[in-house]
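Per reviewer request, we include the raw input and output of the structure prediction for the construct analysed in the revised manuscript.
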Amino acid sequence: MVQQRDNADSGHAQNIRLAVVGAGMRGHAYAAEAAEMPGVEIVAVAEKNPTTVRRFASLFPDAQVFDDWRELAALPRLADAVIVSLPDAYHRDASVAFAEAGYDILLEKPIATSPEDCDDIEAAAKANGVSITVCHVLRYTTYTQKLRQLLEAGAIGEIMQIEHLEPIGHLHFAHSFVRGNWARSETAHSLLLAKSCHDIDWLLHIMGRPVQRVASFGSLGYFRPESQPAGGSDRCVSCAVESSCAFSAVRFYRRGLNNPGSAEEYNALVMAGEVTPEAIDRALETGPWGRCAFLADNDMVDHQTVQMEFTEGRLASFTLTAFSEGANRKTRLFGTAGQITGDGRMISVYDFRTLKTTVYDTDEFGFDAAAGHGGGDRALLTEFIRALREASPDSLTTSISASMASHRVVFAAEEARLTGAVVSLPS
């Protein structure tokens, strides 16, 4: 960390005080992880949703509550660092404001929704001598750590090519990118940025070399008015074919009533404000999540591929799709001495020399691929807190500067998709 803590009354020199800006799913998860660490205290939260505030306050009753992040940023600094997990479109303004106020920042991905806004955030960090860590949690998972260990040991020789798949899942896609908060490019930029910028970041991390050229193809192919089943309605609650539709909001959100602590319950909380039959039915009848998935005013692509050429002719292809079961990411790495197949937990190494396959289960290290991003959340917070205590920003794996490289690839890929061109990146 660069910024010293002279303006924040932190008590013991090793204690760390955090403020949370945006207490939705990711802000809540980071705060909960951090609060379990010795000497870490959550002292403030800025969140405008009353239901979300109540949920947060039940875990952190001593935290000061602000309705607007601007109120917190305008005060003398009352914490050592701030976790910024607002909707993507607000990242630029909030990050610049908190950097100017002297806070070190843990910033949820993406950095921002335009190259210019990303540059502004990086410039603000440098100008004010603060550190910004981007939450590219896939770099921190036990799976990634083991994979990197194998690659550095030469398990498959030199990597020549990577294939990587993110199967978003049809229900998750409909919830977030058709009916939900990331359905429109005017606020979320692109599906690649909103959902998969950390996949692109992960590929650069694994390949260990810069991207030179990128191409991309993708479109909104299915979640469109012409795909609506015959007899469909504008809302699932009044639809004659709801019971046979794979994207029924009625079935999807009512499942949250019977699954406490699950993703289904959280999705119901997001759409209804509270998980009760009355609230869910009211939201289905009047809210955005009750709309037909084919009439939702969405414009995000529902399937996309990205082709990347790295230095020395190394290649990677990335596919993201709505048309899948919700499952772990799938990866194949092709090397000069072998092949690796992985799924976020299991790693299978085939050796060209011995013709044998060795399998590693990274769940043995204490995390599975679905829980806290396979241990990535905890490892990220551990590194962030250690850097704050030791004033060592150079130790951050996903600093703003390191993360900008992969964001530039994402923006170039979206340019390539929209123009049909192969886009070159600066060397």
